[in-house]
Design goal:
The protein has 108 residues and is mainly beta. The protein contains no helices and ten strands.
Length: 108
């Protein structure tokens, strides 16, 4: 049993606290390996229109793969994959117009 002195709204009280059971902590410490949750965002390098989309959500991609073709000023630009990974999120569709620096897809 422990005796504590507490103050509530300016009044002082003495309180006895009895421990009913004492138990040892049974918390297990598991070592968790952090997952690599890094992502890479693919932004539109220029304003234009997506004329061909070669990937879909979940597609496995490698660095250098052509993800899509972006037409701008009557020129077709291959948008290459910057890293190895998979398409986590696809934010565009074929024939969609995109703006400069618009987020087009996320690779995880």
């Amino acid at each position: 049993m422990k005796l504590y002195k507490i103050n509530v709204n300016g009044k002082s009280y003495e309180v006895e606290v009895e421990s009913i059971t004492e138990h040892q902590s049974t918390i297990e410490h598991k070592e968790v390996t952090p997952k690599n949750e890094s992502t890479t965002k693919v932004l539109a390098p220029v304003q234009g229109k997506i004329t061909l989309l070669n990937v879909k959500v979940g597609s496995i991609v490698k660095k250098g793969d052509v993800l899509m073709v972006l037409e701008a000023m009557k020129l077709e630009n291959d948008i290459l994959c910057p890293v190895d990974g998979y398409v986590r999120q696809l934010l565009i569709k074929e024939n969609q117009k995109v703006e400069l620096n618009q987020l087009m897809l996320i690779i995880g």
